[in-house]
Design a protein that fits this description.
Elements: E1 2-6, H1 10-23, E2 28-32, H2 35-45, E3 49-53, H3 61-71, E4 76-81, H4 87-91, E5 97-100, H5 105-112, E6 127-130, E7 136-138, H6 150-162, E8 167-168, H7 169-177, H8 184-203, E9 210-213, E10 216-219, E11 224-226, H9 227-232, H10 236-241, H11 256-260
Helix pairs in contact: 1-5, 2-3, 6-8
Length: 263
């Protein structure tokens, strides 16, 4: 979780930063006394939550929030101020929260517990999935996930692309083999790929990433830390990492990203 905070008063900024760190010790917290520096960092690195003092010299917190929302419309904005008259203008931006000074750990915890756009803890993900460039899958500690069958890996890639939408075995077969007939022989082949996929995921403790009901397959997006999913959420880091390459090794993936976004 990336949290940024901004206040042009040094002591107030230190208090804000310490309160956030105490409330969320596992978060990556960055403090800024300059609005432009925060904007630059948010654009380059991404930001999940921004704590902004409203009453700042130059660009005030409300205008800064508008600029941040242009970078990521789903960024959580929490305003911090000692001036209650700004509340109406601040809330018009659909902010996640509002803290009156003095800031405290308890006030920060209360706002973090009720975010407008809840943050899925990426540290809790079972797998890290790379879609940009070649498709690849890693454990949270960076180890490659070894798939026993290349078609099992491709099957997982397609399910990742579907982002939780269910696919039948027949649909998956059509993606993997295009014009081949879905006869009894190939149905048995798909069963072997399914078994191989489940086995590979189980070896790394990630069997929960695959949801398999009767003749239907899907991934559980909540347990995946995926650059494609971050991209769709307009995460600045993921957007900047995209270099017009998406699951390069699979012909069916050509143009799929452009189908989702009309550039």
């Amino acid at each position: 979780m990336k949290i940024m905070c901004c206040d042009d008063e040094e002591l107030a900024l230190q208090m804000l930063e310490r309160s956030i760190q105490k409330a969320k010790p596992d978060a990556e917290v960055s403090a800024f006394d300059d609005q432009d520096d925060l904007l630059e960092a948010a654009e380059k690195e991404g930001c999940d939550i921004a704590f902004l003092d409203i009453h700042m010299r130059g660009m005030n917190g409300v205008e800064l929030a508008r600029r941040l929302k242009e970078i990521n419309p789903k960024m959580n904005i929490i305003f911090v101020t000692g001036y209650s008259e700004y509340a109406g203008e601040a809330m018009s931006l659909h902010a996640s929260g509002y803290i009156m000074k003095p800031v405290s750990k308890a006030k920060v915890e209360k706002e973090l517990a009720d975010l407008r756009f809840p943050i899925i803890p990426k540290n809790d993900a079972l797998l890290r999935v790379q879609c940009f460039g070649n498709f690849d899958v890693f454990t949270p500690d960076g180890e490659h996930v070894r798939f026993e069958r290349s078609k099992a890996k491709e099957m997982f890639a397609y399910l990742v692309h579907k982002q939780g939408s269910s696919c039948t075995s027949k649909e998956l077969f059509a993606i993997l083999f295009e014009d081949e007939p879905y006869d009894e022989k190939n149905q048995n082949l798909m069963q072997s790929y399914t078994y191989a996929l489940k086995k590979s995921l189980k070896k790394v403790g990630a069997e929960a990433a695959l949801v398999h009901t009767y003749n239907a397959f899907a991934v559980d997006p909540k347990v995946l830390d995926c650059d494609y999913y971050r991209f769709k959420e307009l995460d600045a880091g993921a957007v900047n990492s995209y270099q017009n390459e998406y699951m390069n090794q699979y012909s069916w993936a050509e143009g799929f990203l452009y189908d989702d976004y009309d550039y």
